[in-house]
Amino acid sequence: MVRLVILxxxxxxxxxxxxxxxxxxNAVSAQNDRYAWLDTGAKDLAHRQGIxxxxxxxxxxxxxxxxxxxxxxxxxxxxxxxxxxxxxxxxADVAATGAxxxxxxxxxxxxxPGQYYASPALAKLLRSTPAGELADRxxxxxxxxxxxxxxxxxxxxxxxxxxSAAQMxxxxxxxxxxxxxxxxxxxxxxxxxxxxxxxxxxxxxxILSVVALSLLLPVLIFIAxxxxxxxARREQxxxxxxxxxxxxxxxxxxxxxxxxxxxxxxxxxxxxLFFVLRVPxxxxxxxGEPFFPGELSLSLPDIAAVAVGVPAAAGVVARLALxxxxxxxxxxxxxxxxxxxxxxxxxxxxxxxxxxxxxxxxGRPASIPGQxxxxxxxxxxxxxxxxxxxxxxxxxxxxxxxxxxxxPGALIAARRLADDPQAGFRAVSGLVLALFxxxxxxxxxxxxxxxxxxxxxxxxxxxxxxxxxxxGPGQGNPAAAGTAHGTASGFSPAAAEAVVGRLRRIRGVQxxxxxxxxxxxxxxxxxxxxxxxxxxxxxxxxxxxxAPALGRCPVGAAAVKLSPFLTSGHFGGRxxxxxxxxxxDVTARQLGRLRLYGIAVATNGSQSxxxxxxxxxxxxxxxxxxxxTTFGEDxxxxxxxxxxxxxxxxxxxxxxxxxxGCTLAASVAAGLADRKRPFSLLRLxxxxxxxxxxxxxxxxxxxxxxxxxxxxxxxxxxxxMFADVxxxxxxxxxxxxxxxxxxxxxxxxxxxxxxxxxxxxxxxRPEAVRNE
Length: 772
Hints:
Blueprint: H1 2-33, H2 42-48, E1 61-62, E2 75-84, E3 87-96, E4 115-118, H3 120-128, E5 141-145, E6 157-162, H4 165-169, E7 175-177, H5 188-191, H6 204-226, H7 231-243, H8 248-282, H9 300-320, H10 323-327, H11 347-362, H12 368-404, H13 408-419, H14 421-449, H15 459-462, E8 464-468, H16 493-504, E9 509-522, E10 535-540, H17 541-545, E11 559-562, H18 568-571, H19 588-593, E12 595-603, H20 607-620, E13 629-630, H21 631-638, H22 640-674, H23 676-684, H24 689-727, H25 736-755, H26 757-763, H27 766-771
Parallel strand pairs: 3-6, 4-5
Antiparallel strand pairs: 1-7, 2-3, 2-7, 4-6, 8-12, 8-13, 9-10, 9-12, 10-11
Helix pairs in contact: 1-6, 1-8, 1-9, 6-12, 6-14, 6-22, 8-9, 11-12, 11-24, 12-13, 12-14, 12-24, 13-14, 13-24, 14-22, 14-24, 14-25, 22-25
């Protein structure tokens, strides 16, 4: 009964981990799908800004004047991204034209003019933040909350603001839509749409496939280990029953009943544990955002596979355990040395490396399904190959040790491993696999991080808030299109001067720079990578002197030509304070008559200052070009996807190490119980308890070191090939954190082994032999 309870408990934990891995993969995909409606009209807006998708396909957004006659009540809409303290706020400005206009998910109806719906997280933020820093950006008053169907995450910051159709028709970037986009970001590769929010098909499928592989294999190893708990003791008990007259059929029935009951109890306990822990598990931000508990869901095939597969696997293991008992009741006692593993066990490992190497030579497939078929089977072969080659590596290490040691404990451990390397490796197999996963994850993420966008040099530059109106230099005056308030006066010189005055009155604003557009002005030479003859903007030297983070003027110049790209993506990590911009042949009077292209605000970096300045700019120029952002925020936004991948890699690493620890603990404890008799006899013949402890430590340490060395080396080799093919970048060596994680994993393994030493003392007491 104790064995059955332990077996059921171990299987329950394994099943819960398996269900968590499957549901977490489903949750990442479901969360990504919730971004679909936020991409409404994105293709139309991108088209008008010169960004074309790879393929042409129908889209929910159409430009003004291109509405189909069949659409009786379309919806004016514009979806942009706002910022607050490093957090993204998705803003949807809408105007219904009739009772049947499309309604965003999570809303009972479209908001009317002067009304808005906010997500619960944003509503809380609006209440706790001074109005001048956030609430003043959004006209009207809140009339309700956005429900779960319209939110990607419980922490999502999202607002839907109502306007009249007349207001929206004058808002640059607004589009008439007859339906909201229903194509998930992951499906945009085939639909020709543009991803504004979420992860596109170029990444999500490949990421989920690799994550699923990295989580499921360690869990399956743990479940397989759990089903073998006390296998040797069970064989002895069945053999004794055969000797007193039990038939093979009776033994088979007993074994089947025991395994089935334990497996069914474990499956039930696993499902129960999963549903109990689903709410706290949903709060774990696998990709940087928590999930709704309902997204940690299981499909019917998932449930059926686990509910049927685990008991079936337990039954197969129980049947295999009866082989020697069925041959002869004395077959258990008359143990012989198993056949040693052959070197051919490394074939799968070499095949996996060869699979990745093939694509290094011939290049990766162009399509995402092709890349999945290229890389996932290769990594799967390597991981399975490590499990297959582990016993052979253990035997090789044990034989080397036999020839080099003379102490009794080391000789006993080496001989036992050489005789049955399969059993010795089984205990550490989970940790070996976890070390491979950790090596690949850390090496790939480290290499990817070298491609991350570097912030603009200097803290002062990172605190510069830039507002551009979404129109390139020389592409027409945005004032002609008006604003959301139905007037073009916001771009007049008097209005611009009033905005600059309000900005300068904010505490912490150090300078304000107006960027003016002269259609005939170009860069005469390369400046920060701008080709000669490229359109430029012009700024006043007295103004740029108040914002030295943007560069400086030549001595005696009244104005300079500046790069029109005020983004971190263009400037990279360059220190702008050292840049002397070329002088512009524009007088101060001429400068005041030029079109306003953008405004840059130098701040002291405090949240209050940045948010107040952002609010002033958004209220003055709601042109639909997005939120004003600091260079630091722009860098963080463009690196957001890499941060999500880093978060996901951390979860995979920690999860695989935790599962490996459970596998090791179950294997070592089961091994002690199975070897209760020989260890007890050794103690009776004079062996010290310390020597037996060394035997246990060496029996686990030798296969761990032998296989872990190969696993880590293979991990670096696989990472180097993957980085070369998929990331188009040579492998970058991990930093100190990787070595800390690796050393911590091995130390954890040694700690788990040491934790079983008190059990060894109890199992090898003299009365234990008498009871045998």
